[in-house]
């Protein structure tokens, strides 16, 4: 299966760089699936899940928003923040979720609703990615994989 180069970077680090078959990203206008030889494109991303397919393997990452650019030679995701499942601190994400939900529920006078909603989406994306990994590990164990 043909591949293309995918690089995911944040201001702090390179999160991912490899040749992949597909990436599916949370574009602001909806889910965006990129295959090899996609036309050049630049779009903003919402907080959500990134799915990468490579050699039959599926890798999920949480992304906090940013930009995706399809260049002729590679696809670059410049993310505000991005973590692989194994890097996510579940307790921290749950606390962030509870904090954002409480703000949206209690409407304190200083509430910035769109900021709280974005924080909620980031935490939900992180928890979803962790949950996918947990389920995968469980099913791999069930099938006797290491
Ligand atoms: P919090 O309120 O817990 O800081 P946040 O959504 O506001 O969460 P971000 O601004 O998206 O955090 O990210 C700041 C930095 O912290 C980034 O480097 C990001 O990768 C990291 N980060 C945030 N939450 C987690 C988490 N649950 N597990 C691991 N790293 C995290």
Could you provide a short overview of the structure?
The relative contact order is 0.16.
Topology:
Layout lengths: L3 E6 L4 E7 L1 E6 L2 E5 L6 E14 L2 E14 L4 E5 L2 E3 L5 H17 L6 H30 L4
Helix pairs in contact: 1-2
Bound molecules: adenosine-5'-triphosphate (ATP).
Question: How would you portray this structure in words?
Answer:
There is one protein chain. The mean pLDDT is 96. The relative contact order is 0.16. The chain is 32% helix and 41% strand. It starts with a strand and ends with a helix. The protein has two domains: 4-84, ATP Synthase, domain 1 (Sandwich); 88-142, ATP synthase delta/epsilon subunit, C-terminal domain (Single alpha-helices involved in coiled-coils or other helix-helix interfaces). By secondary structure, it is an alpha+beta fold. Strands 1, 2, 3, 4, 5, 6, 7 and 8 form an eight-stranded mixed beta sheet that branches. Strand 1 (4-9) and strand 2 (14-20) form a beta hairpin. Bound molecules: adenosine-5'-triphosphate. Adenosine-5'-triphosphate (ATP) binds at residues 12, 64, 81, 83, 87-89, 92-93, 96, 119, 122, 126.
């Amino acid at each position: 299966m043909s591949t293309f180069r995918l690089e995911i970077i944040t201001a702090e680090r390179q999160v991912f760089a490899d040749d992949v078959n597909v990436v599916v990203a949370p574009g602001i206008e909806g889910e965006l699936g990129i295959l090899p030889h996609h036309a050049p494109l630049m779009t903003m991303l919402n907080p959500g899940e990134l799915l990468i397919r490579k050699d039959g393997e599926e890798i999920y990452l949480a992304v906090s928003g940013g930009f995706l650019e399809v260049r002729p030679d590679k696809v670059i995701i410049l993310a505000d923040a991005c973590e692989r499942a194994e890097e996510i601190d579940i307790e921290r994400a749950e606390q962030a979720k509870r904090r954002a939900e409480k703000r949206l529920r209690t409407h304190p006078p200083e509430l910035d609703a769109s900021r709280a909603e974005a924080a909620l989406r980031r935490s939900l994306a992180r928890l979803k990615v962790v949950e996918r990994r947990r389920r995968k590990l469980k099913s791999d164990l069930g099938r006797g994989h290491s």
